[in-house]
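User: Just a sanity check before I run the rest of the batch. Below are the structure tokens for the first item. I only need the designed sequence back.
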């Protein structure tokens, strides 16, 4: 960035109305919103669940992209609806396959009239889809459809796991995988699974399977399920003994380093199921390692395990610019998982990352051709560094070390610059905010903002960044806030501009930036576009970190401002404007509700009118019925005499039946009272069950807080242990010196005794001589 760039930036920031065809961009946003290919496929399948729509969804969902990876996180409600539909469809297909040639009634509910017969391959595909969308979807307590699916999985696995040749049963492996993923992050699913009637038979089948097979997939999937369900119980302490845990570690690390496999690497287009991906088993193995580490005893064993450090170093070696995307994802997933286990692992990762070559290689990967690999790597660095970047500050103190990162910083800034065109070309905010390029750029900008806390990196950014392009990007996203409908503001967050504003603000503290550019940048940061972006950040309801960074940024900018009130008024204008848009969204919602209420009143009047017409028709029907009754009465008189004759015989029979009826009635009443007591008892049990579930959720939250406190205590205990070891060393030295002093005193005492005896002898001799 030079003075000419600053001059262009000055003229650019003062002319907001006509920048880079913003009006055309806004007009494109005003059209009917489009959807991504995956969202379209999901919607089509939910609307019409069939083998054809499931195949289309599978082809779209298995693609390796950042959009697909974070789809469940960004569309939780849609994924929950999809999982319900998949569960119903899968159960229907399973019932059809079980009934062979007979058409089951349940299958017709989820099939089109022209749909062909379902095949076993369809159920495998539905299981794969259930896994792909259950990975990062927080289910909570399962719906009715998911409960049925969980029951089917438990019952089916309990039987299939005991059959011979289960190592080649792809369906069994997929069923284990789906259940393992559904209980991984959803406490409600775990609670429901533990309360199932056949869960003990399921545990028994998995235990038998673990003792009877050597297949890595069956072993890892089964252990993952058991670790997530029974690790904290008495059964878990027996099942995961120190010997068994050591065997599990051997298996897991052999899977992670590839020694378990035959090193054949198949491309995604050649695979028949997701089980053929080597990376899938490695991902699940890494998750299993973290699940086992929930036990403090196993965590201590893992911290001392000899293969943990080589595996960490190997993962950092895998993460490089020319590395394979899937293996980079596995390595990043493993490192990001273990860094959260304990302070010991965080220190291990920071120590490995503190090597200049490793850090340079990992930072290079943030501009990897695969956007998903690059995005995941950036997230990994942010997670490892955390809020304290001082751990790697020493690497950039020599200027030549910082200059080595110049190409990497340039590439990251180029990525941010290229995003300007992507934002301008996008026709829909929903598609833009979930595109691979946008998600990658957000993480890169966030990482660069974090690295800007280092003066050396900040100087490189000042030399490389284009304020003109940065201002364009911020202004375009600010314009998007004004172009979207008010009701869409709650779903659209200009994350890239939020991080970019933080990045530009951090450049002000660099000494290499000229005063002219600083003044220009300060002026731009006080514009309405920036304040609008900050307003969107402050009203963010999905990412607490963004709100925290925005508050810190506001505090910093107001602290360094000469006229704080004037600056605050400028920022308040954009923030209030955004809040007004949120208020407009609320007003629109209230207006919609009022309109619906008005329509309801009109409908009520229509119903009243129809009711009055119905009353008239009923009155006419009553008149016709009266005429018919009179005719029937005349006919009845003719048969009255005949009926009277039969009444006597019937009366006798009636008396007998009335006696029996009274007896049966008394029995029914007693049974009804008994049933009412049972119903009330069941209701009380249900209420107690709900209370226990709520208490269990509270206990899990308290357990998480206690884990965090234990981590803090571990750090303190480690410090006390170090102090204690130093004190013990000093005590040993002092005891050694004391022993030496005692020996010297003993020697002196002996010499003193000998000399005293000699003196007494001499005195005696002298006394005798004189006598």
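Assistant: Here's the designed sequence for the first item:
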């Amino acid at each position: 960035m030079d003075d000419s760039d600053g001059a262009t930036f000055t003229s650019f920031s003062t002319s907001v109305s006509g920048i880079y065809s913003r009006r055309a961009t806004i007009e494109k946003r005003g059209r009917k919103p489009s959807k991504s290919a995956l969202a379209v496929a999901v919607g089509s399948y939910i609307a019409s669940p069939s083998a054809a729509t499931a195949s289309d969804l599978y082809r779209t969902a298995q693609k390796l992209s950042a959009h697909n990876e974070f789809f469940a996180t960004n569309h939780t409600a849609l994924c929950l609806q999809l999982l319900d539909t998949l569960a119903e469809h899968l159960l229907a297909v399973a019932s059809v396959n079980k009934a062979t040639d007979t058409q089951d009634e349940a299958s017709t509910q989820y099939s089109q009239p022209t749909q062909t017969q379902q095949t076993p391959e369809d159920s495998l595909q539905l299981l794969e889809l259930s896994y792909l969308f259950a990975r990062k979807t927080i289910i909570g307590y399962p719906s009715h459809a998911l409960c049925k699916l969980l029951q089917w999985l438990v019952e089916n696995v309990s039987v299939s796991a005991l059959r011979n040749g289960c190592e080649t049963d792809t369906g069994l492996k997929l069923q284990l995988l789906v259940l393992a993923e559904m209980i991984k992050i959803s406490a409600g699913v775990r609670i429901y699974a533990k309360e199932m009637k056949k869960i003990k038979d399921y545990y028994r089948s998995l235990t038998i399977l673990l003792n009877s097979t050597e297949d890595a997939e069956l072993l890892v999937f089964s252990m993952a399920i058991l670790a997530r369900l029974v690790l904290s119980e008495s059964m878990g302490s027996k099942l995961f003994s120190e010997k068994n845990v050591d065997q599990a570690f051997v298996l897991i690390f052999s899977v992670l380093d590839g020694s378990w496999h035959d090193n054949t690497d198949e491309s995604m287009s050649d695979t028949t199921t997701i089980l053929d991906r080597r990376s899938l088993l490695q991902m699940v193995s890494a998750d299993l390692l973290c699940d086992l580490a929930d036990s403090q005893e196993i965590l201590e064993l893992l911290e001392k395990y000899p293969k943990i450090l080589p595996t960490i170093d190997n993962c950092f070696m895998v993460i490089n610019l020319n590395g394979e995307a899937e293996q980079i994802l596995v390595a990043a997933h493993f490192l990001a998982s273990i860094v959260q286990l304990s302070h010991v692992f965080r220190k291990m990762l920071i120590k490995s990352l503190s090597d200049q070559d490793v850090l340079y290689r990992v930072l290079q990967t943030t501009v990897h051709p695969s956007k998903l690999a690059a995005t995941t790597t950036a997230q990994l660095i942010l997670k490892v560094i955390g809020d304290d970047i001082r751990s790697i500050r020493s690497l950039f103190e020599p200027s030549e070390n910082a200059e080595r990162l110049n190409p990497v910083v340039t590439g990251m800034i180029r990525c941010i610059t290229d995003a300007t065109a992507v934002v301008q070309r996008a026709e829909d905010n929903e598609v833009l905010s979930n595109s691979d390029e946008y998600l990658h750029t957000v993480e890169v900008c966030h990482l660069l903002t974090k690295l800007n806390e280092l003066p050396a990196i900040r100087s490189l950014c000042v030399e490389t960044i284009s304020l003109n392009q940065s201002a364009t990007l911020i202004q375009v996203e600010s314009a998007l806030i004004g172009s979207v409908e008010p009701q869409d503001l709650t779903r659209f967050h200009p994350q890239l501009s939020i991080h970019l504003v933080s990045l530009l603000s951090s450049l002000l503290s660099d000494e290499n930036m000229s005063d002219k550019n600083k003044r220009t940048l300060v002026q731009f940061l006080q514009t309405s576009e920036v304040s609008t972006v900050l307003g969107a950040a402050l009203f963010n309801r999905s990412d607490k970190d963004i709100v925290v960074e925005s508050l810190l940024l506001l505090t910093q900018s107001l602290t360094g401002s000469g006229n704080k009130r004037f600056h605050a008024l400028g920022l308040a204008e954009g923030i209030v404007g955004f809040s007004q848009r949120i208020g407009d969204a609320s007003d629109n919602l209230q207006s919609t509700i009022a309109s619906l209420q008005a329509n309801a009143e009109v409908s009520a009047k229509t119903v009243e009118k129809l009711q009055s017409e119905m009353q008239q028709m009923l009155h006419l029907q009553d008149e016709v019925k009266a005429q018919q009754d009179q005719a029937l009465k005349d006919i009845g008189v003719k048969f009255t005499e005949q009926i009277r004759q039969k009444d006597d015989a019937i009366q006798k029979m009636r008396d007998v039946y009335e006696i029996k009826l009274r007896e049966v009635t008394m029995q029914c009443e007693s049974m009804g009272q008994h049933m009412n007591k049972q119903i009330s008892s069941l209701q009380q049990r249900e209420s107690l069950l709900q209370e226990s579930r709520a208490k269990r959720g509270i206990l899990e939250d308290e357990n998480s807080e206690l884990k965090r406190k234990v981590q803090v205590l571990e750090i303190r205990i480690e410090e006390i242990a170090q102090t204690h070891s130093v004190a013990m060393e000093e005590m040993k030295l002092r005891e050694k010196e004391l022993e030496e002093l005692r020996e010297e005193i003993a020697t002196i005492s002996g010499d003193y005794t000998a000399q005293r005896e000699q003196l007494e002898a001499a005195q005696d001799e002298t006394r005798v001589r004189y006598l």
